[in-house]
Amino acid sequence: MTDTPTRQRRLSLARVRRLPSWSVLAAGTLVGGLLGGAYGVLTPPTYTATSYVIAVPTAKSSPGPDSALGFAQAYGRVATQLAVLGDAQVWAGVPVRTLRHSVRTATSPDAPMVAVSATSARPGLAVDMANAVSRALTRHADDTSGNTQVRLVQFSRAVKPTEPTSASSTVTALVGTSAGGLLGGLALLARPRKPGQDDDPVPAASVPGPATAADVR
């Protein structure tokens, strides 16, 4: 009675060991594809909205294009700081923590422009966050324009996105399939070899000895 579960486990392990090598690769590929597809289906889509502001010289001074470009780079770095996000949270209607997690900025090495992008599961909220941060950044630039001789101007407001920017379930399934196949291949390479499969020396071929005189007669 007590040996029956142990015997069943041994039989199960023996059956698993008798499976062909390619079954591990096929199982990893299948499981990875299923997990990747499930992730794409269960994860809600995300939307991204982007607004643009541009740095321009004030009327009191005429700094060169390099100066405006340098200030645009600087404003792009401070756009996600607490001083700017603290004002933007009032217009966006979300806490600073959400803005810090959802808002990203990018600048161009050729044009004095700052792109403010916000990502959210709700398209309307993404638009509100992007425009709110752009508005707060513009106000901070105006407050210091007397010293910098550069101000920020709204170049383009964020519009409501119509398509999600997150990966679809098809893409996540393909990524999962590739990852599962890769892990299955690594498992095949790392599995222990069967004893006597490749380690036993090859027996030497036997060579007949020289025939004696009696055998010749």
Per-chain topology:
Blueprint: H1 3-17, H2 22-42, E1 47-57, H3 65-78, H4 82-92, H5 96-102, E2 103-107, E3 113-120, H6 123-143, H7 145-148, E4 150-156, H8 169-190, H9 213-216
Helix pairs in contact: 2-8, 4-6
Biggest sheet strand line-up? 2-3-1-4
User: What share of the residues does DSSP label as strand, in percent?
Assistant: 5-15%
Order of helices and strands: HHEHHHEEHHEHH
Radius of gyration: 34 Å
Count helical runs.
Answer: 9
Biggest sheet features: 4 strands, antiparallel
In helices, the fraction of residues equals: 40-55%
Beginning-to-end CA distance, first to last residue:
71 Å
The strand count comes to: 4
Counting helices, strands and paired strands, the structural category is alpha+beta
**Mass-distribution shape:** elongated
The average pLDDT score comes to 76
Taking pLDDT < 50 over at least 5 consecutive residues as the criterion, the unreliable ranges are none
Q: Short description, anyone?
A:
By secondary structure, the protein is an alpha+beta fold. The chain has nine helices and four strands; from the N terminus they run H-H-E-H-H-H-E-E-H-H-E-H-H.
Task: Explain the overall architecture.
It contains nine helices and four strands. By secondary structure, it is of the alpha+beta class. The protein has helices at 3-17, 22-42, 65-78, 82-92, 96-102, 123-143, 145-148, 169-190, 213-216, and strands spanning 47-57, 103-107, 113-120, 150-156. A four-stranded antiparallel sheet has the order 2-3-1-4.
